[in-house]
Structures are given as structure tokens and as C-alpha cells.
Specification:
The structure holds 2 protein chains of 2 kinds. Chain A folds into 2 domains: about 130 residues, no CATH class; about 220 residues, MetI-like fold, CATH 1.10.3720. Chain A is built from 19 helices and 3 strands. In chain B, about 35% of the residues lie in helices and about 25% in strands. The longest helix of chain B has 14 residues. The radius of gyration of chain B is 18 Å and the shape is globular. About 5% of the residues of chain B have low confidence. Classes of the chains: A mainly alpha, B alpha/beta. The complex binds adenosine-5'-diphosphate (ADP) and magnesium ion.
């Protein structure tokens, strides 16, 4: 048809004359677009800059926390110290009481070839070893009683001052009396390093130890368990309640003044400062219901209250976004309202609900203020066996370490921040995966 | 109880001769909040016939259609007055369950709206929730017959597990028709079922409607005069929430009584 039209036109037909160009403001319109793009790029750039700065600060200060200086010593588990009564099978109480620091001191003095009579030198050498050696050696013996009376090479933690010194966090060139390590100790450290008996090893303790006043023995173990318990509680409590409440409000509740009032209140609750939830938790769960202070249960419940509005708002938005045509299709076939919601609307709203829930959880994972109010700042060294035992949480542990003066704790709080950020990133990653999975079901 | 009506055309309310009335609306008024959308509509819908509702947009065709399976119940603030019967029984009566009613009076919407599930599940959903299939094999059979009746089976038989939303517009609409007939309704309501389709798909659906009237009573809203003329036996002309004329389609298009009908079908307004 096009060909026919073309052919029917005489080749010599004159071209039509263009009318005078109109000014339709093209320059202005494109200018506006270019300006807007520039603002956008500037905004994104600023955001990225601050994000990189934050990451750089945290990582550059914190990455060293994942390494810990340790000293390898041939420890002789002398029977007269470990098992003074000579039973050959000492009970736990005896093992608890044994003077392990003495074993460590003897070992390091022998290792460095110091005259045991030189009290000063022996004390300086012993100070290189962490006071945590008591717990460490006790655990070694307790796990293998046949060691009593024998000598075994053991890696033990170096004192946090040694650790900081080895990591170059002190200025070692200042006058001797003004630095925490004296010249003799520096000499010992060098000697041990040359022997291969002092090195930085991966700091598993950061993830397994409970809190400690000695930086080298302080870890996130209790905080990780506490946070895990709390996330579980938040998920179990606020996801079902939040989703059920949203479904009821969105799909079943009559639209009247009362439900409007509830809606306004839920939106307001999402904006209530988290510390207020802490006060509420203190009053309700601890003072009124007498649940144990600083337990993961109370923390989890408080965080659940805080997360509920977020989940409800996200869920309602996700339900609202399901096209009315799908609802009409289901109802038109004779599905009951309940069947419409559970067969069609809820599955389609799932990605939105999950995203909202995970964002809520991530928020709860990083929340500190309400936990301070319910006493989760307690110093907890032992693993909580149940959610009723005292525990702490990752952000609270960071807060506590950040308040310590010692250089080694600064490093550890940055390390803990890295751990927290990794968990948050994992949760977001998980959210994306879940969303993709659910969305792929057309 | 069975009402019979004569086909002799007597002015605005012509009655078909001796055809059983499947549904009957009397003095139907619908309010959306304060706004009245229907002002006393009387309409008889004969059994196993196609009844077309025509009229300019906003005149209340969809509103009337939605009264017939009580979809207006789901519209916020909508109120229906008057009575509508199905086989002589008032469908707004308390002892009629709307779920059961909708299983008897199915609906096909303006925009094809398959569920975001497989073709099979789209059709199987209705029979499943109403417990119509005795077992898996029976369910398969229902799905196949429905797809065949909707004239879609040959095109999709190899991909029943693929998403219904992946079909073309015309196929989607036929899928929705198959989905509606899978619950074996007595009446099928169609609200401008071809307005989102191209002419070829429209022709397919129109043929289908013509076949379906062997087994089902059909009410179709359409804005296309040709379509009403092609598929329906009876036509009702709506205007401003009232029926201005109703009668056999042939007569409506050849020799309408009302000036407004004449103007509308000749394209002078609407
Ligand atoms: N859900 C609704 N809420 C309020 N008014 C409505 C609603 N649906 C339809 N109406 C009004 O009712 C009148 C009839 O609408 P409708 O039945 O959709 O007309 P048609 O299908 O003939 O184009 C119109 O004035 C429309 O604005
Ligand atoms: Mg309409």
C-alpha cells in the first residue's frame, strides 16, 4: 500500500513549505530537565560520599579487632598447683581454684630465659599475658585431665596493652614512664616475636567470649545470642499480630470514625521515639508483670511493640496495592471474603509484607535506647541459656564498649559495629532474595 | 414459579412472547452515598437469551448489572432498593447467600482479570472452592470442558501450567469466560467484555457468546451498537439511570419507539 502511494506521487512534486518556527520553549524545558538531573546526581553523590566516609572510618578503626595478639607458651600443668591434693582426678571446684597465672608466669619466665629470682623482670614478663589466662588454662585442663603433670604448648591471649602495642596503636617513642609498656617489656615482645611465639591470630574470641573488663577477653558472644533471641521473639510476636491486625483493618473492619481513629493512632505510634517504648516495657513487663530485668524476653517484647506499627503500615500498604480487579474476580466467582483474602490478596501482598517485616526487624536489631531502660546494660559474662536469663544486645554492647576509655575497647566497639553492619546487610540481602522469590510467581 | 411474558411490542416496555423470565428487576434504585444512579429500573431477562444493555456512558448499565449478582454489596456506600428475582426468588432476601448467588450468576469484567496463577488454576479455582469436583480427574475434566466451551482449549492445551497473565488480551478474556462457566452458573453477566480487545479477538468472543446462549442466560453491557445487534436478542436502552426503551433487538435497531434510542443508535449522542 505504501509502495502504491509512493508510486502515485509524481517524482517532481514540489516540497511543501515549512511554516515559520514557533518558540515552544524547548530550551527552557530541556534546561529544567538538565538542572533536575544535576540536583539528583549531587544528592546521590553526597549520600554516597557520607556512606563511604562512614564505612571507611568504621572499617579502618575496627578491622584490627578481628586479630588478636596471642603468645605460645609451653605450659607445665604442675600437679602440685592444678591438683594439690593429688587425687589424680580433681573436681571442678579444685580446678577453679588452681593458681593458673603462676603456671603462665613460670612458663614465660622460662621461655624468655629470665632468672626466676629477678622479681621485677618476672613481674614485667608475666604482665604480658592476659589475666584471662586463668579461665583459658582451666578450660584446657578441664577438657583433658591427662595433661596434669605434663607440658603442653598453648596459645594464650596477650594483654590488651601488648595487643595495642603490637598493632602500633601507641606511640612507643615517647619517654618510658609515659607509656604502658616499658623498655624491658618491649624487648621481651621482640624476643617472643622472633621465636615465632607471639603473633596476631584470628580473633575467634570476639564472637564467642561474653563481656569482660579486660578488653582482650571481651567478646560479643552474649550479645549475639541475646540479639538472636530478641529477633526471634520480635518475629514470632509482631509478624502474626501485625499481619492479622492489618488484614482485619484493611479487609474486614467497617470504615467508620473508630477505625479512622485507630489508623491515625497506628501511624502516630510508628513515630513515637523508641525510648518511650522502653519506658512502657519497664512499666508493663518488668514492674507489672515481674518478668526478669535485662532478659532477652523483655527486650524482645519491647522491640516487638516498637516494630508492630512498621509491620502494620507496610502490610496495609501491600494489601492496598493488590489490584481491585483481582478481588472482583474472586468475589465474582463466589469466593467468600475470607477466601478472597487468603487465596488471592495475601499471596500477592507477600513480597511487600516480607520487605516491611525485614525492615522492621533490621530496625529492631539496631535499636539501643529502649533496651537501656529495661536494664540490658548489665555486665553479662555468661551465655544466657534461655530468653529469661540476663543477656545483652549487639548495639548495647557497642554502646558499653564505646564508653570505655581503654584503646583496645575503642577498636572492639568499631569491630562490633562492623559485625552489626554485616548482619544488617545480610538481612537486607535476605529481604531482596525473598522478594524476588515471591515476585517470580507472577 | 414461572413468569411468562408476551413478545408483542407495546411501547417502552415490550415483552417477549412466552419466554420464561430468568431474572426480573422491579423498581430498582441504586444510591452511591447521596447520589442516585438508578431511578426505578424494570427489566425482565429471558432465559437462554442474550440481553444487551446499551446507553451513553455513566447512565447506569454497569450499576444495574452489578445488582444482578450483588457485586454492589462490595462497593463502599452503595445501597440497592427495589427487588430483583432469580427464578422468582428475591436475591436480596436474607435467606439467599451471596456466595451461592454468585455461583449461580457469574460475571466477566471489562478488563480481562485472570488470577496471577496458571491457566489450569484459574479455571479450577471456582470448582475447587465450591467443591464441585469429586476428584482430581473430575477437576481436570471440568477445566477442559470449560476451556473448550470458551473456545480456548486448542490454543492452551499444551501450556495449562503457564501463567494465565501471559496470554494475549483476547485469550485472557476467554480464559475469564472459561473461569466463569467452570462453576456452571445459570446466568453470565458481561460488562463490556470486548472493550479491551482488538477486532479479531472481539469476533471470537462474540461467536462464543452466541454459542453460550444455548446453555446460559447472558446479560451483556456494550457500547458497540453493532455488537448489540450481532449478539443479542433483546436490548434495553438506558439513559440517565432509567430504561427508556426495551424490546427485541431487531425492532430496537430498525424501528425504535423512543427518540433518544434513535439518536443513540444512529450515533447522534453518547
Ligand atoms: N463506585 C461508585 N461510587 C460512586 N458513584 C458511582 C460508582 N460507580 C458508578 N457510579 C456512578 O453511577 C453512575 C452510573 O455509573 P455506571 O453504572 O458505571 O455507568 P455505565 O456503566 O453505564 O457507564 C455514574 O454517574 C457513576 O459516576
Ligand atoms: Mg460501565
Amino acid at each position: 500500500m505504501t509502495d502504491a502511494t509512493l508510486r502515485s506521487l509524481p517524482t517532481a512534486a514540489p516540497t511543501s513549505a515549512a511554516p515559520p518556527r514557533r518558540d515552544i520553549g524547548l530550551k527552557r524545558r530541556y534546561g529544567a530537565e538538565r538542572r533536575f538531573k544535576a540536583y539528583g546526581i549531587a544528592a546521590v553523590g553526597t549520600g554516597l560520599f557520607f556512606l563511604c566516609w562512614l564505612l571507611y572510618t568504621v572499617i579502618s578503626q575496627g578491622y584490627t579487632a578481628f586479630w588478636q595478639t596471642e603468645i605460645r607458651l609451653p605450659i607445665t600443668f604442675a600437679a602440685n598447683i592444678v591438683d594439690p591434693r593429688g587425687t589424680g582426678n580433681p573436681d571442678m571446684a579444685t580446678l577453679q581454684r588452681a593458681n593458673y597465672p603462676k603456671l603462665a608466669q613460670d612458663a614465660i619466665v622460662a621461655k624468655l630465659g629470665i632468672d626466676p629470682a629477678d622479681r621485677g623482670a618476672a613481674r614485667d614478663a608475666a604482665a604480658l599475658v592476659s589475666a584471662n589466662v586463668r579461665a583459658e588454662l582451666r578450660d584446657v585442663v578441664a577438657s583433658d585431665l591427662t595433661l596434669i603433670g605434663k607440658t603442653q604448648e598453648v596459645w594464650i591471649l596477650a594483654n590488651s596493652v601488648v595487643d595495642s602495642g603490637v598493632k602500633g596503636q601507641f606511640d612507643l617513642s615517647v619517654e618510658e614512664s609515659r607509656r604502658p609498656l616499658n623498655d624491658r617489656q618491649l624487648g621481651y615482645i621482640q624476643q617472643l616475636e622472633q621465636d615465632g611465639a607471639l603473633e596476631q591470630r584470628f580473633n575467634w574470641g570476639l564472637f564467642t567470649f561474653g563481656n569482660s573488663s579486660r578488653a582482650e577477653a571481651a567478646g560479643l558472644g552474649v550479645a549475639l545470642i541475646g540479639s538472636a533471641w530478641m529477633m526471634l521473639i520480635v518475629l514470632v510476636v509482631s509478624l502474626p499480630i501485625g499481619v492479622a491486625a492489618s488484614i482485619y483493618l484493611e479487609e474486614f473492619a467497617p470504615k467508620n470514625k473508630f477505625t479512622d481513629f485507630i489508623e491515625v493512632n497506628i501511624n502516630n505510634l510508628a513515630a513515637v521515639p523508641s525510648i518511650v517504648y522502653g519506658l512502657l516495657g519497664l512499666a508493663v513487663f518488668i514492674n507489672y508483670m515481674s518478668l526478669p530485668r535485662s532478659s532477652a524476653l523483655v527486650g524482645g517484647l519491647v522491640l516487638s511493640l516498637m516494630t508492630l506499627p512498621t509491620i502494620i503500615i507496610a502490610t496495609r500498604a501491600a494489601l492496598k496495592a493488590v489490584p481491585p480487579s483481582i478481588r472482583a474476580a474472586a468475589l465474582g466467582l463466589g469466593a467468600s471474603k475470607n477466601q478472597m483474602v487468603f487465596h488471592h490478596v495475601l499471596p500477592l501482598a507477600m513480597p511487600g509484607i516480607l520487605t516491611g517485616t525485614i525492615i522492621g526487624l533490621a530496625h529492631a536489631l539496631g535499636e539501643t535506647a529502649p533496651l537501656l531502660l529495661i536494664g540490658m546494660v548489665a555486665f553479662v559474662a555468661d551465655y544466657p541459656a534461655t530468653p529469661l536469663d540476663a543477656s545483652t544486645a549487639l548495639p548495647v554492647q557497642i554502646y558499653m564498649w564505646a564508653n570505655e576509655a581503654e584503646r583496645a575497647f575503642v577498636e572492639r566497639s568499631s569491630g562490633a559495629i562492623i559485625v552489626l553492619l554485616i548482619f544488617l546487610a545480610l538481612m537486607n540481602f535476605f529481604a531482596i532474595i525473598l522478594r524476588r522469590r515471591f515476585e517470580r510467581r507472577w | 414459579m414461572m413468569e411468562n411474558v408476551s413478545f408483542a411490542s407495546t411501547g417502552a416496555h415490550a415483552r417477549p412472547v412466552d419466554l420464561p423470565v430468568k431474572m426480573h428487576g422491579r423498581k430498582v434504585e441504586v444510591f452511591y452515598g447521596q447520589k442516585q444512579a438508578l431511578h426505578g429500573v424494570d427489566l425482565e431477562i429471558p432465559e437462554r437469551q442474550v440481553t444487551a444493555l446499551i446507553g451513553p456512558s455513566g447512565c447506569g448499565k454497569s450499576t444495574f448489572l452489578r445488582c444482578l449478582n450483588r457485586m454492589n454489596d462490595t462497593v463502599e456506600g452503595a445501597r440497592v432498593v427495589g427487588d430483583i428475582t432469580l427464578d422468582g426468588e428475591d436475591i436480596y432476601n436474607k435467606n439467599i447467600d451471596v456466595v451461592e448467588l454468585r455461583a449461580r450468576v457469574g460475571m466477566v469484567f471489562q478488563k480481562p482479570n485472570p488470577f496471577p496463577k496458571s491457566i489450569f488454576e484459574n479455571v479450577a479455582y471456582g470448582p475447587k472452592i465450591h467443591g464441585l469436583a469429586k476428584n482430581k480427574a473430575h477437576l481436570r475434566e471440568i477445566v477442559e470442558t470449560s476451556l473448550k466451551r470458551a473456545g480456548l482449549f486448542e490454543e492452551v492445551k499444551d501450556r495449562l501450567d503457564e501463567p494465565g497473565t501471559g496470554l494475549s488480551g483476547g485469550q485472557q478474556q476467554r480464559l475469564c469466560i472459561a473461569r466463569a462457566i467452570a462453576v456452571s452458573p445459570e446466568v453470565i453477566l458481561m460488562d463490556e467484555p470486548c472493550s479491551a480487545l482488538d477486532p479479531i479477538a472481539t469476533a471470537t468472543v462474540e461467536e462464543l457468546i452466541d454459542e453460550l446462549k444455548q446453555n446460559y442466560t447472558i446479560v451483556i453491557v456494550t457500547h458497540s451498537m453493532q455488537q448489540a445487534a450481532r449478539v443479542s436478542q433483546r436490548t434495553a436502552m438506558f439513559h440517565l439511570g432509567r430504561i427508556v426503551e426495551v424490546g427485541p433487538t431487531e425492532k430496537m435497531f430498525s424501528n425504535p419507539d423512543d427518540k433518544r434510542t434513535q439518536d443513540y443508535i444512529t450515533g447522534r449522542f453518547g
